[in-house]
Write a structure and sequence with these properties.
alpha/beta; five-stranded parallel sheet; 5 strands
Amino acid sequence: MMKKEVYKILVVDDDQYALKAATSLLLVSGFFVVSCNNAKEAYDKFIEGNFDIVLTDIKMPYMSGIELLEKIHLLNEHTPVILITAYADIDIAIDALRKGAYDFIVKPYKPEQLICSVNRAVKHVQLIELETHYTEILEKTVFDRTKELRNALEKLKHASKEIINRLTIAGEYRDDDTGTHIKRMGLYAKELSKALKMPDDFIENISLTAPMHDIGKVGIPDAILLKPGKLTNEEFEIMKKHTIIGANILSGSTFT
């Protein structure tokens, strides 16, 4: 993030001499300055412009500097507002700081005192800008990573479905009856889950996984699997092993 070359300051004071002196001092110090002799005008200019710092007198007619501070912070709570007063009243200073004033300067002040306060405010603005910048980067990074993760999970989900479909097709190649049977089981499982008002994720998962219950038949010899007649006891024992074969095929799967 590049720092601003010039920071924009709004100066407010009903004392024309004090207003001119502060404005000239800040201009010489390299700041862009807009000056106003009353708080109402200053507030209107603040709305129109993008000011980094506000330097305002407290004692002014119609609207005080503290009232201006409160109105400005309703628009942007991070804008540093430096208050200036000719009265060294500790109660006023405490009240101003409680209401969010960045700094408090008592007239008459030395030029370096004013510049020092403004420079500190500039650093404050830079820190806020830096924080905002990195927050935006972090939010974008999180958004991008979340999107990537969502896409990766979606691809994984599609891949899992494809594997299931291919395993189902493998069963169909061995035995037409098994193929149609496992398809029916997937449909039955889905409809039963809906009737039981199961969660959507459960319905989707069981409709995908139910067809695999007989997948172990791919390991049964054709002579037994495709035998048209009744199986012998020995053949039936071999046929029953399709459950073990299926469990071995699917073991370790996080999807099932």
